[in-house]
Amino acid sequence: MGRVVRTKDLPNVLDNVGSSSLTHVVLLVIVLMLRRGFLLIWTLIFFLVPWWPLIQVSYFEACIQGLPPCPTSS
Q1: Is residue 71 a part of any domain in this protein?
Q2: Which of 20, 21, 40, 69 lies at a CB distance of 3.0 to 4.6 Å from 62, suitable for a disulfide?
Q3: What is the reported pLDDT for 47?
Q4: pLDDT digits (tens, 9 = 90+) for 38-65
Q5: Has residue 31 been placed in a domain?
Q6: Total structural domains in the chain?
Q7: Which structural domain, as residue segments, surrounds residue 60?
Q8: Per residue in 21-37, pLDDT tens?
Q9: Which UniProt keywords are given for this protein, alphabetically ordered (predicted)?
């Protein structure tokens, strides 16, 4: 965690992590936030993370019941 990641090193870091495009996006966002110091965004992330399982559970419950948040299954 203590490594300093420079922008020109980013492709190598991404290659080492793997081919998942989601991982690439997450890493890129984290690096950009660290470079620009978006403390507000970090605060929102840390505030929302504990609630994320609850958000997912209620979303999937709505899916099961066929409620609006979820597209109707074929």
Answers
A1: no
A2: 69
A3: 75
A4: 666 767 777 777 776 776 777 677 777 7
A5: yes
A6: 1
A7: 7-65
A8: 777 777 777 777 676 66
A9: Membrane, Transmembrane, Transmembrane helix
